[in-house]
Amino acid sequence: MIEKKIHRFLERQRFDLTGKSIAVGVSGGPDSLALLYFLWGLKEIYQLRIVAVHMDHMFRGEESYQEALFVQEFCKKRSIAFEMKQVNVPDYIGKTGKSSQVAGRELRYQFYSEVMKKHDLNYLALGHHGDDQIETILMRLTRGSSGSARAGIPFKRPYEKGEIIRPFLCLTKQELEEYCQKHQLDPRRDPSNEKETYSRNRFRKHVLPFLKKENPQVHDHFQRFSEEIKADDEYLTELTQVKMNKVMEKTNEKVTLDKDAFLTMPIPLQRRGIKLILNYLYGEQPSSLSAIHIDSIFSMIKNPHPSGSLDFPNGLKVIRSYGKCYFQLHPSESKPFQFQVNGPGLVELPEGGFIEAEYYSKDADESRDMETFLVHTGLTGLPLIIRSRQAGDRMTVKGMAGTKKIKDIFIDEKIPKFMRDRWPVVTDREGTILWLPGLKKSSHSTKGAGTGELMQLSISNDFFRGHKDHEKGY
Q1: What pLDDT, in 10s, does the model give residues 319-365?
Q2: In whole angstroms, what is the distance from residue 295 CA to residue 321 CA?
Q3: What's the pTM?
Q4: CA pair distance 291, 311, nearest whole angstrom
Q5: 3-class DSSP state of 300
Q6: Dihedral-angle region of residue 265 (phi above 0 means left; psi in -120 to 50 means alpha; beta otherwise)
Q7: Would you say residue 239 lies in a domain?
Q8: Are 345 and 330 in contact (CB under 8 A)?
Q9: Could you tell me if residue 193 is inside a domain?
Q10: Per residue in 367-425, pLDDT tens?
């Protein structure tokens, strides 16, 4: 019996129906109507609280409205709480440009969420079945999905403050049709399910019949495959998270990856590590992202050339520069900047961090580190200038004869290309470069400075975070 199969499936999933409060998504079709009827039949036994939820997408005018009234009447006869909403999905599609399936799903789940909050429900039950599972897995494999996405439809997943559950994944479409006939449920049919313009319908009409002919129980094997893939991926993902925390740094919209440390990880963890980065930055990955994108990241990371970049969907930029790989969502273009220093104070830099200026006594020793610099203002005069680099910039370098191009210093220090236009350059009022913070000091001398003529400039460590190699101390 179908009921026994469902209960065995729920036991295998370690899911107990007792005392659950459930919103049931009901379109009026065989799958969702059977689910509502099944749960309604267990209401007293398991002390369930059920609310049926129907959204009229308004794709088919009066026909779809009549389906909504059918579901309403179905619930009324059985004293099932019912929530319904008409939403003009075609109008939403026109405003957003989203596909009918994406737009419908988005608005439908918004309504589910509203109902669950209104009635304080912890679960959302949906009527996906074993044939849906086969179609989903095949579609995702065909499209090039990777990792846990290949597992298809999960039995349960977090949603709002509770979970989505799918009790019918152990059943076939035919079994649900027979269940509806047995209990005289008279479900409604959506003609769009026959249109071959949708890829799912093509798989349903052409691929599934062949598989079922080869093995009538093929849905059980796909479900087992789904569960095994999911369990394996969850375990490997836990290992990946531990490893990745040691080889990357995260901010809100940027991840910096240490290339060499990352490549020491086992390859299965590397692939999941890249997916973790993409999940972190995207939140919800765009459907256009596939395994091909991940392969392109690996190709760039392993390329012997020290630099490269990739443009991903939704404004994600992936940049390889020397020993680092940068993932940044909506990176801003660098704009030239220039600030004046007329005395003690702070200058906030466009890319974060600041440079602080303060007077020093004439007997102060100049620090050896590159994060501070002493200026003899009696020689340079004021103001000092903090600006972005310019074409042809050169500077003297302390301890070296002649001058050196700023561009060559950046290359020698392995500063990523995208950071070079953001790096502050400190000059005197005549344009002579005095200091390249964190990198080089000029041959500027502080000897003979009188009282009040020594000014120390210091750059904060915030500026360097994620922009310089860690082995250099940043």
Answers
A1: 999 899 999 998 878 899 999 999 999 999 988 899 999 998 755 56
A2: 18
A3: 0.68
A4: 15
A5: helix
A6: beta
A7: no
A8: no
A9: yes
A10: 778 999 999 999 999 999 999 999 999 999 998 999 999 999 999 998 988 889 999 99
Judge if 50 and 78 occupy the same domain: yes
Domain ranges, residue 310? 245-329
164 and 251 inside one domain: no
- Who's near 415: CB < 8 A, 6+ residues apart? 423, 439, 467, 468
Residue 123 to residue 116: CA distance in whole angstroms: 8
**Which residue in 337, 299, 341, 342 sits closest to 318, CA to CA?**
299
Angle between helices 267-282 and 218-244 (to 10 degrees): 80
Domain containing residue 310: CATH number: 3.30.465.60
Same domain, yes or no, for 72 and 196? yes
Bridge partners (DSSP) of residue 396 are 403
Whether 424 maps to a domain, the answer reads: yes
Are residues 99 and 1 in contact, defined by beta-carbon separation less than 8 angstroms?
no
Residue 128 domain-assigned? yes
217 and 260 part of one domain = no
**Looking at beta carbons, which pairs linking 134-137 to residues 24 or more positions away fall under 8 Å?**
134/208, 134/211, 134/218, 134/219, 134/222, 135/200, 135/203, 135/204, 135/207, 135/208, 137/222, 137/225, 137/226
CA distances from 191 to 59, 92, 122 (A): 11, 21, 32
- Whether residue 350 is found in the same domain as residue 318: no
109 and 181 share one domain: yes
pLDDT tens, position by position, 82-139: 999 999 999 999 999 998 889 999 999 999 999 999 999 999 999 999 999 999 999 9
Same domain, 187 and 54: yes
